[in-house]
Design brief:
about 150 residues, alpha/beta, four-stranded mixed sheet, about 15% strand, globular
Length: about 150
């Protein structure tokens, strides 16, 4: 999904820089450092959720509780995720003050949990090409909507 988001943003004329390009662990501290060193305007971390309760489902987007810009950014992405992935329900916007990528990045930041891989039904959908494309489009449109509505350089 992240690679597709980067591709779509690049085609839109925006520079999107991944904090990792291979399936190699990059520490959260290092991801924040990369974002801050390049002077990123926005930071998006894309994940799939998991829980011991196999019935847990839905998408949620996290932001730093003290960030109005982060909340607006998260809302744009969640709105688009639900619009494009009609099979995914909303778990809403969530705040967290201890997620490193939300706390230590200097720009508005979000953590996108697109659904639950621990839920067999949702996992089947999440790994479908339909959902991957829809999620990438949704996250991209959420970013572009946020930039268009709130971004001042």
């Amino acid at each position: 999904v992240a690679n597709k988001v980067i591709g779509i943003l690049s085609k839109s004329g925006l520079e999107a820089i991944p904090t990792r390009v291979d399936d190699i662990d990059v520490s959260l501290k290092e991801r924040c450092k990369i974002s801050n060193n390049i002077g990123a305007d926005l930071f998006v971390s894309i994940h799939l959720n998991s829980h011991k309760n196999k019935n847990a489902n839905g998408a949620e987007v996290w932001y730093y509780s003290g960030s109005i810009k982060g909340k607006n950014f998260a809302n744009n992405i969640l709105t688009e995720l639900l619009k494009h992935n009609v099979e995914i329900k909303s778990r809403g916007l969530k705040t967290c003050d201890y997620f490193a990528t939300l706390r230590y990045t200097k720009c508005p930041s979000v953590v996108v949990e697109a659904g639950f891989i621990s839920n067999d039904i949702e996992a089947n959908y999440l790994f479908s090409e339909e959902c991957i494309e829809a999620s990438a489009k949704a996250i991209t449109e959420g970013i572009l909507n946020y930039i268009g509505n709130n971004y001042v350089r």
